[in-house]
Design goal:
The structure holds two protein chains of two kinds. Chain A is built from twelve helices and no strands. Chain A has helices at residues 3-12, 18-37, 43-81, 84-99, 102-116, 121-124, 129-132, 136-161, 164-172, 177-207, 219-230, 234-261. Chain B has a single domain, classed as MetI-like fold, CATH 1.10.3720.
């Protein structure tokens, strides 16, 4: 490759425009001064706890997104094509969950249900009681319902947006209704919902630190503990923000890969 | 309910043995913070959208960094960082100038912190809305020799409004719900008042349900208002519902 072509390529690289090189240098200087002048000596003491916290954050994110999506499909279908006695409760569920803060829902489930349950001996003696006394089932339930409600609204639009002719053609081929749903309706609806799914997943990630308020030990609560133990305020919070930025980057990257795999054609 | 001695009605009464008055005061605080944060967020958003569209390369890159970071980091973490950093910076500035340290008013801090978060989202909404205006309208206004301020007031803002309203409405609902996060830094808005009431009476379920109803009422009332504003902003435009595409 000749040097002229190489120089042209470098000039076209968006990262190597003159003002960006300057900004990158400023950013590098900021990071370097943060590394040199701020206190990071607490990191070795909390390394294991932080890794466990990151793992729990990701675990809660993946589980609640998967469960929420499974719940969102029937919720969206009921609103888009269901009879009124299915559409109305589904719509009410979405409205109520989307109309109240997640923090309040979380506290209602954990403190509210948690204070009601022990009054009933049947629940206290049941097999589920050891789980109901812990915090994470309430966290998973609240986050799942929240994701289901927001994504259910998206799926409603996606189901309604699939062209009627596609479904009629499938019926004309003699497909059963369940086959039409599995092969035609659902795949096209999910393809329509995919661009918003990445955004909803990032929003869900941003909702996970709320579980720290009901004693689930995620990465956010590890950072709070560092603050309480050592009275260091900024460093743990900045590192925490960086960790969330990285996880967001990974989510966006994965969804880009997924979208690239699904064939699409602009009409 | 088996163990509840006091009736729900007495718990939610407005007079002091009941906690209804506290909840309503909390709701009022929440609404004030949401209004303030939303208003300042809109101002930041208009500035940010203009900077992203018409600014120089450095300003554009800096705004991109701002919106990316705010949209990727949880609000809770941002609130803590901005809350600590903001109060700390102001106090250091005051000490450097020779004044005594002050306690920052929780209301002001809450509004400021949420406004920075809201600003990032409204920057993106308004940028998209400005791009949706038929650009000939803006060019025509420039050709008439309108100064930029007048152009913004007479052409850009009114013309982008119908495109921006769905996004802005969503942001308003997010703002009302994000005020609940200020309970974590101990500010007396609705969720925090509810927790106090529930903690001292042990009637957790009753109070959290009551607060949920208040938040839901606020959302539904906002929805009605938003629908009216949307109809008003689309006056004189052809109806989009039922049309092709």
């Amino acid at each position: 490759m000749s040097t002229i072509v190489l120089a042209e390529r470098l000039a076209r690289n968006p990262w190597l425009q003159p003002h960006r090189i300057g900004l990158l240098a400023v950013a590098a200087a900021l990071v370097a001064s943060a590394a040199l002048f701020m206190r990071w000596d607490w990191i070795p003491n909390y390394y294991d706890l932080a890794l466990a916290g990151i793992w729990r954050t990701i675990w809660i994110l993946v589980v609640t997104c998967a469960l929420g999506m499974m719940l969102a499909i029937p919720l969206g279908l009921a609103q888009a094509a269901g009879p009124w006695w299915l559409a109305m409760p589904a719509n009410a569920f979405c409205t109520v969950i989307r109309g109240t803060p997640l923090l309040l829902q979380l506290w209602l489930l954990y403190y509210g249900l948690g204070s009601l349950f022990p009054q009933f001996p049947a629940i206290r003696n049941s097999e589920l009681w050891p789980y109901l006394r812990q915090a994470w089932p309430y966290a998973v339930l609240a986050l799942t319902m929240s994701f289901a409600a927001y994504e259910g609204e998206v799926m409603r639009g996606a189901f309604a947006g699939v062209p009627k002719g596609q479904l009629e053609a499938a019926r004309a081929f003699g497909m059963r209704r369940s086959t039409v749903f599995r092969r035609i309706w659902l795949p096209q609806a999910i393809q329509r919902a995919l661009p918003t799914l990445a955004g909803e997943t990032v929003l869900q990630l941003k909702a996970t630190p709320l579980v720290a308020t009901i004693t689930v030990v995620d990465i956010y609560s590890v950072a709070s503990r560092v603050r309480q133990d050592t009275f260091i305020v900024y460093e743990p919070l900045l590192l925490l923000a960086l960790i969330y930025l990285l996880i967001t980057g990974v989510i966006i990257f994965l969804f880009r890969r997924l979208e690239a795999r699904i064939p699409s054609r602009l009409g | 309910m088996p163990l509840m001695q006091v009736s729900t009605y007495e718990l939610l009464a407005f007079e002091p043995p009941g906690w209804g008055g506290n909840l309503l005061r909390g709701l009022l605080n929440s609404v004030i913070i949401a209004l303030g944060a939303y208003g300042f967020g809109l101002l930041i958003g208009i500035g940010g959208a203009y900077g992203k569209l018409y600014g120089g390369p450095i300003l554009r890159d800096l705004l991109e960094v701002y919106t990316t970071i705010v949209r990727a980091v949880p609000e809770l973490v941002l609130i803590l960082i901005l809350y600590f950093a903001g109060t700390d910076l102001i106090n250091r500035l005051l000490e450097a100038l020779g004044y005594a340290r002050i306690d920052i008013n929780g209301l002001v801090a809450g509004i400021w912190v949420l406004a920075v978060v809201q600003g990032a989202y409204s920057t993106e909404v308004l940028r998209g809305a400005i791009l949706s205006i038929p650009q000939g309208q803006i060019e025509a206004a420039r050709a008439y020799g309108m100064p930029p301020g007048l152009l913004l007031r007479r052409v850009t803002l009114p013309a982008m409004l119908p495109f921006a309203i769905p996004g802005l409405a969503n942001l308003w609902l997010i703002a009302t719900k994000d005020t609940a996060l200020l309970a974590i830094v101990g500010f007396n808005e609705l969720t925090q008042e509810t927790r106090t009431a529930a903690g001292s009476t042990k009637a957790y379920f009753t109070f959290f349900m009551a607060a949920g109803v208040l938040y839901l009422a606020l959302s539904l009332f906002s929805n009605v208002l938003i629908a009216r504003i949307e109809r008003w902003s689309r006056r004189g435009m052809p109806s989009v519902s039922g049309g092709p595409g």
